[in-house]
Fold these 2 entries.
Entry 1:
Amino acid sequence: MIDAAALKWRRVRLPGGSVAIPSRADQPASELDQELRLLMRALDRRPEPPLLEVAAWDAGLEIAANAAGWPDDGMLVPLNLGASESCEAGAGAWTVVPPDELLPAEARFAVVRAPHWLGRAGVEWAVRAAARALPPGGLLALLGDRARGIESLRRRLPPVVGPIVDRAAGEHRRLYVLERQVDVPPPQRFAWTIPMRIAGREFTVCQHPTLFSPTRVDPATALLAEKLPDRDGRWLDLGCGSGVLTVAAGRSDRRLTAVDWSYAAVETTRRTLAANGIEADVRLADGAPPGEQPFDVVLCYPPFHVGPRVDHGPAARLIQAARECLAPEGELRAVLTSAQSPRDLLRPHFREISPVASAHGARVFSCRQPTARRGRHR
Ligand SMILES: C[S@@+](CC[C@H](N)C(=O)[O-])C[C@H]1O[C@@H](n2cnc3c(N)ncnc32)[C@H](O)[C@@H]1O
C-alpha cells in the first residue's frame, strides 16, 4: 500500500437517512454517489440475494443496502487494488472478489454504476461481466449519467443481457433494470489486439476495454518505448497497463518485472508478452513490487486522472515508489504529458534529471541519483 493514499470518509444522503462511506483518496468512488441514490430511491423491489456490484470503487452499495434492510449477502468486484482496499475498508458480510474469480450464475441481482470515464467499451465490459454472474431470470441494474452516453449503451444491451423490465430517472441519471435471458451473448465489438512497430521491431499488443488507452498505443507510451536506456540488469515496468513498455524492453540480458494494480492490466500484459514470446515476472502490486531487490531501470508513465478528474496525487506516489525501489546507480526513465510537471513529480525524488526526447506534448526524462529514502513501502 502507498502511505499517502489514506482512507477518506464521506457522507452520502440516501432516501432513509445518510450513511458514511470510506474510500481511498485515489479512487473515484464519490463520482457515482448520485447513481447510488437513484438506485436506493427508485428500486421498487427488495433484490434477491446474493447481490453483486461490478466495478465497485468502494463498499457504498453494501453500506446503502444494509441501511435499507436489504439482504446482507453480496459481492463487490473492484477493478484494481486501490478499489479493492476501499471495498474491504467498508465491507461487512459481503465478499470482495477480483473480476477473474467471479463465477457464472453466482449472484441473483447485479449492479453496474457506469464508470463513464472508462469509455463505452469499458462500461460494456463491466455489464457483460455482471450479466455472466447472473442465472437466467437474474436482474441487472445499470445506472449512469444521461450526459455520458448511458442511453445509447442501453440500446445496445438487450441482445447482450435480455429485455429491460424496469426503468427510472432522477438526479440527471438513468436506471435500467434488465433481466438476464440471453444465454450466449454475441462477442463484444472491441479490437482485442493491435500491431505495433517499436524501434524497428514488430509487436502484437493485447488490449482490454478497462485499461488506459484501450484502442491504440498512446503517443507518450510509444515515445518512451522508442527511447529506452541501453542498459542490462533488472528492469521494472511500473504501471504496465497492456504491457507495451515491457515488451519493448525485452532483451536477453535484462530481467523484466512488470506490475500494475489493475487486475486486467496484469492479465493483459501476460497476454501481450505471450503473443511476442517475451518473458517477464508480471505481478499485481500497488506501487512497486514488495520484497524485491533494487532495480537498475524503472520505466514509468504515471497516471494523471482519478476517474474522470485530473489528479496528480497517484502519479506523485508512483514516482516516489520508483525512487524507493531503484538501485543507487539506477535510472528512472519516465514519460510525462504536458499536464504533468517534472518539477513537482520528479524533482523531489532525483538530483539529476535530463530531458531525453519530446514529441506531441510528451516528454521523456532520465532521472538518476535518487534522493534519500524514507524507508521502503511494503
Ligand atoms: C498512464 S497509464 C500507463 C500504462 C502503460 N505503461 C502504458 O504506457 O500504456 C498508468 C498505469 O499505471 C497504473 N497504476 C496507477 N496507479 C498505480 C499504483 N498505485 N500501482 C500500480 N499501478 C498503478 C494504471 O493502472 C495504469 O495502467
Entry 2:
Amino acid sequence: MANLFTSFTLWLIIVLCTQTMHAMPLWPGGRSTRFYDFKLQTMKITKLCNTRDIVTVNGMYPGPVVYAQEDDRVIIRVTNQSPYNATIHWHGVRQRLSCWSDGPSYITQCPIQTGQTYTYEFTMLQQKGTFLWHAHFSWLRGTVYGAIVVYPKTGVPYPFKFPYEEHIIILGEYWLRDLVQLEQATLASGGGPPPADAFTINGHPGPKYNCSSNDVYTISVVPGKTYLLRLINAALNMENFFAIANHKLTIVEADAEYTKPFTTDRVMLGPGQTLNVLVTADQPIAQYSMGMGPYMSARNVPFQNITSIAYFQYLGATANSLALPAPLPSFNDNLAVKTVMDGLKSLNSVNVPKEIDTNLFITIGINVQKCKSKMSPQSCQGINGGVMAASMNNISFIKPNISLLEAYYKKINGYYTEDFPGVPLKFYDFVNGAPNNIPNDTSSLNGTRIKVLEYGTRVQLILQDTGTVTTENHPIHLHGYSFYVVGFGTGNYNPQTANLNLVDPPYMNTIGVPVGGWAAIRFVADNPGVWFMHCHLEIHLSWGLSVAFIVKNGVGELETLPHPPADLPRPSTFPAEKRKELFNSSPGKASCSNEYSTNSSGKAANFLSEVIGLVLPMLLEILIWARCFAWEACIHPLHHLEGSSIDIEVREAIATFSTITF
Ligand SMILES: [Cu+2]
C-alpha cells in the first residue's frame, strides 16, 4: 500500500512538473505563484455627504494590493459581479509573451461580461517595484484600482537604506456620479467632462472637503525614522502635484525602475505613473499635511482646485494640533514639473538602443470636429459648437468591436487597417502655429489605424505636443514595454539641437510629454502581440488619443505569442440579425457583446463560454494547489485579501513573505 502511495505521489509530481514545464518553459526563475481572487462588485459608499454605489474589487476602495516578488508568476481570477462589462489592466507589467492578459478592452480581449470569469496570468519577469492595476473599460477605473507591489528577490536589498516602514499612497479622483454613464453622457454631449467632485488620497478626500473632516488618511511616524512612500496616481482626468509640509522627498524609483536618488520639495505624477520616495521624519514633533493638488497645463479647462489632505503625524503629536500646510505649486507651474523630470536618471548606466530601425514622429493633441447636420445641438457642445476629439498624427482612434489581438491572431479582416502614418500628414509649427480656426481646420480623421513592427525592431518615437485647441502635458502610456526617455524639451522637436541622454535615461512606461513640447523614447519591440499606446487622461483616451502597435512574432517559441487562454472572453455568437439590432454591426461580423452591460440574451448566448469559464479555472486551481503541495512553494490565495489591504503595514507583508519557501 505504501509503495502504491509512493508510486502515485511520484507519478503526480512527474505529471505536474511536466505540465508546469510545458506551460511555462520561459520563466525558470518563476518559482513561486501568487494566486488572487478578484470579484468586481458594487458597494455602497458614503463620501461628501452622499451615499451611492461604486464598483470595487472585493468591496475595497481602493482595491486589494497585489504583492509578489521579482520573477513570480501571478494568477488573478477576475469574476465580474458588477452590472457593467469590465476588464483589468496590470499597468507597467511588461507581459512578456502574455499579451492575452494585458487587459485593455477591445485591444487584447472582449470585456468580461456580468457573471463571467477570466483568469489573468503573467510573470513579473525581471520586474520589481510599484505598479498599479486598474479597470480598462469605459471610466470604471475611477473606482476600480489598486497597487501592485513587487519586492526584489529574496536576499537582494534595495539600493538604498532599508526604510523603517513602507506605505502605499494612491492619488485618485472621486465623482458623485456613475462613471460609465458619465463617459457616455460626456461623449454624447460633444463637450468636455465636468471636474471631479474631490481629489482623494487612498480614497479619502481629507478635511478641506464637505463632510470629510474625519475622512482623512493618516500615517503615524516615529521621529528620526525613514519611510518609503509608494506614490501612485490613479486619477481619471488629472495630473497631480504631491508634497509634504516641511519634508523633503527623495525619489529612488520611477515607474518601477530604480533611479539615482533625487531630492525635491514636490513631485508631479500623471495618471498611471508611480514614484517611490524616501521621507525622513526629521522635523519637530507635529502633524504635517500631505497634499495632492491639480497640475493643469491646458487653457480654459475647468478642474477641481481643492487640495486633498492626508496627515503625516509624528508619534507624540496631538491629533487635533494644527497641521502645517503642504507647499503645493500653483496649478500651472510647468517649471516644477520640468525640475522633477530633469532629476530622473536611471540608477546605473543602461542599454539604450543606439541605432534605430524605425523612427516615428507622432503629434498628439486635441481636435474639434464639425457638428454634422443630422446631429442635434445637444450633441455638439464642444468649442464653437463642434464635437471634441483628440488624436495622434491627426488620427482619432476608433476602438473596434472585437479585440484587435483576436482579429490579428485569427486573421479576421475588416476591423483595422495597417496604415497609421509614421509622420504627421502635414508639417507646420506644431506648438505656436497650430491650426486654430475651430472647428474648420482642427478636425482629425477617424479610424482604427495601427502600426505593424517586425520582431526586434529598435524603435524611436518622437512624441510632439501640438497647440491645436490648446497645448497640454499628456501622460502617454505604452503597454507591453518600458521605454527609455532619452530626451524631452519645450517647443518643436529639432534633431539638430535635441540633447539626448543615451547613458542613464529613466526607464518608464508613462511619459508626461511636456506642455507645448516633445519627448523622445526608445524601446526594442521584442514582445509579440498587440500593444496599446494612449494618453492616460481618460477623456483624451475616449476622444481617440491612442494607437496600437502590432509586434509580429520572431523565430521560435521564445519569440512567439502563445495561443489564447481557453477562458478568454470571446466575441459573441449572436445570430447575425440579432447582432445587427444590438450593436449595429454588419451581419456576418463577429462582435464583443453589448458594449456597456450584459442583457439576458447575451447571457444565454454565452452560456457555453460561461461553463468553460467556470470549469477551466477550477481545473487550473486544482493543478496549482497540487503543485503548491508538491513544491511547498505557494501561499493561500486569500491570505492577501483579508482586511483593508491599503492600510496593511508593509512590515507585515514582509513578515508574510518570510514564511514562504522560495
Ligand atoms: Cu492627453
